[in-house]
Write a structure and sequence with these properties.
The protein is mainly beta. The chain has helices at residues 24-31, 35-41, 175-189, 324-329; strands at residues 12-17, 55-59, 63-65, 72-77, 82-83, 87-94, 98-104, 107-110, 112-113, 118-124, 132-142, 147-157, 163-166, 211-213, 218-221, 226-229, 233-235, 243-245, 250-258, 262-270, 273-283, 290-291, 296-300, 311-317, 320-322. The chain contains four helices and 25 strands.
Length: 333
């Protein structure tokens, strides 16, 4: 079971499985800690409260799970516990080629590799997912045909998002129209391009970025007309231009006028990662174009369900919007 992390402390990692003859002091010596730190880090009742087969945790710079897979040295998570609306990145380090797959909370995890040594999977955690413990399963089919499974519970915590109120024309609150548009975009956003196009941290999509609304805010439209959450971040017009730029390399897979999102663009960055741009006034690219960081995509506008000129910027992973600020501030993988 994953232990909640105090964000002011070094994260805890599952580093050891208790044997039938092991004592707390033996584990403490192996990890360079003390029996009392062991008790505190693992929420034990005392130094005697150890069960054979139990996974123990200790501070480390990387969050790495012990692994039952042959030729696999580590299964690493970018952040534990995971947070509503954030990106879950899983890395598997293997000395031999294998076919990895997984399931998190009933949803399929796809793994990709560029060197047959490091395997990556990216998964979007829904911003409205209830906090709690969720099952994670990772499977390996090795070259010799053997199958292995790694399972554990992963803790999901609240994202601490706030609330905001937005007023738009009533026509844009029709849930039938909203659902129809979501269903139209779903097959596009659930594609898996096996090649990773992006390299490094994503760039800001506008000059002189100023943020009008953050990701994850619980939204009340028109005083109870519709309740949802903000699936991206809104950039106001603070630069002497309306330019919108590609934040990373990728292929344009959508550029058209939609009812709710207005003039919209979607870019496939590979490995199930997409970026979206809503409410634009005009396009400078077409479907099929391959863009590089800094390429001009179009102009900020006020089309679709919009309360004023702005860019709604969104990052989607396998169809789930995630916090774009994370991709603008961190490098993946």
């Amino acid at each position: 079971f994953i232990i909640p992390v105090d964000k002011s402390q070094t994260p805890l990692s599952p580093v050891h499985t208790v044997s039938s003859t092991e004592t707390a002091i033996e584990f403490a010596v192996k990890t360079g800690s003390t029996p009392w730190e062991l008790v505190e880090n693992n929420h034990l009742s005392g130094t005697w409260d150890l069960l054979p087969g139990e996974i123990l945790y200790a501070p480390s710079e990387t969050i790495t799970a012990s692994t039952p897979f042959p030729n696999v040295s580590a299964i690493s998570f970018n952040n534990l516990p995971i947070i509503q609306g954030e990106t879950l990145e899983i890395e598997i380090d293997s000395s031999k080629q294998g076919e990895f797959s997984g399931i998190f909370n009933g949803k399929t995890l796809h793994f990709f590799t560029e060197d047959s040594e490091a395997y990556y999977s990216f998964h979007g955690i829904h911003a409205l997912e209830e906090p709690g413990a969720y099952p994670l399963k990772i499977m390996l089919n090795s070259e010799d045909g053997s199958a292995y499974t790694f399972e554990q519970l992963v803790l999901l915590e609240t994202g601490g998002y706030g609330n905001e109120w937005v007023n738009v024309p009533e026509d844009y609150l029709d849930e039938t129209v909203i659902q129809k548009e979501d269903e139209y975009l779903s097959p596009i956003l659930n594609q898996f391009t096996p090649e990773r196009y992006w390299d490094g941290r994503f760039q800001y999509p506008v000059d002189e970025p100023c943020i009008n609304s953050q990701f994850g805010q619980r939204r009340d439209y028109n005083n109870g007309g519709l309740f949802f959450y903000h699936t991206g971040m809104d950039f106001g017009v603070c630069a002497p231009n309306l330019n919108i730029y590609a934040p990373a390399a990728g292929k344009v897979v959508l550029a058209e006028d939609l009812t709710i999102k207005g003039k919209a663009i979607l870019i496939d960055h590979g490995w199930g990662v997409f970026s979206g741009y809503w409410h634009m006034s005009e396009f400078n690219v077409s479907v099929g174009d391959f863009v590089q960081p800094g390429d001009l995509l179009g102009q900020i506008g006020n089309t679709g369900r919009s309360a004023g000129p702005h860019l709604h910027f969104e990052i989607d992973i396998t169809g789930t919007p995630v916090n774009p600020t994370t991709w603008l501030s961190q490098e993946f993988p």
